[in-house]
Amino acid sequence: MLKNAVIQLLSEAGVEIEKLSELVMKIKGNDTDLSLVLIRQEVEEVLSNTEAAEIILTIVILNIYANSNLLPEPLQTLIKGNKGHLNNVLPLFICNLYGSAGIIYYGHIVKAYSSLLDEQFTSFNPGIKNMVAGIAAAACARIDAV
C-alpha cells in the first residue's frame, strides 16, 4: 500500500508521524475538542491520499538524491541549495488537495511557525521542512472541514 511506503520513507528521512501530529496540535491549539489521536488520524488520512502520497514520495526522494549529490544540474542546486522555488512549490500541491484553507495554513505555518519547524525538525533541509509544513497544513484543513 502506498501509505505504508510513505510512512516508511518519511521515517527513514527522520519525519515521525507523532511529531507531525504534535505540530498540528500546536497549530490548532485553540481547538480544545481535538485530541492527539484524532489529529494523528487526520495526518494519516493526508498520507493515505494517493496524490499527496505521490508528492511526498517525490519530495523525499529528490531530497535524498540531492543530499547525495546524485541529481543533474540545475536540479541539484535547486533542491539542495534551496535556490529557486521548487522546495516551496512542491508542498503546495499537498495543501491544494484540501482547498484554499490548506494553502492559507501552509503560508501561516511557514511564516508563524518557522522557529517551531526549525526546533522540531533541526536536521532537515528546507525541502523536507516545507513538506512537513505542507502535510501539517493539509491536516489542519481536513480538521476544519470536519
Index terms:
single chain; 146 residues; mainly alpha; YutG-like; 9 helices
Write a structural description:
By secondary structure, this protein is an all-alpha fold. The protein has a domain at 36-112 and 122-146: Orthogonal Bundle (YutG-like). The protein has 9 helices and no strands. The chain is globular. The two termini are 25 Å apart.
Give the topology, please:
Elements: H1 2-12, H2 17-27, H3 36-48, H4 50-67, H5 75-80, H6 86-96, H7 100-112, H8 114-120, H9 126-145
Compact summary:
This protein is an all-alpha fold.
| Poorly predicted sequence stretches spanning 5 or more consecutive residues | none
Task: Please state the second-level CATH architecture of one domain.
Answer: Orthogonal Bundle
CATH class of one domain: Mainly Alpha
Report Rg: 14 Å
> What class do helices, strands and sheet pairing give?
mainly alpha
**Roughly what percent helix?**
over 70%
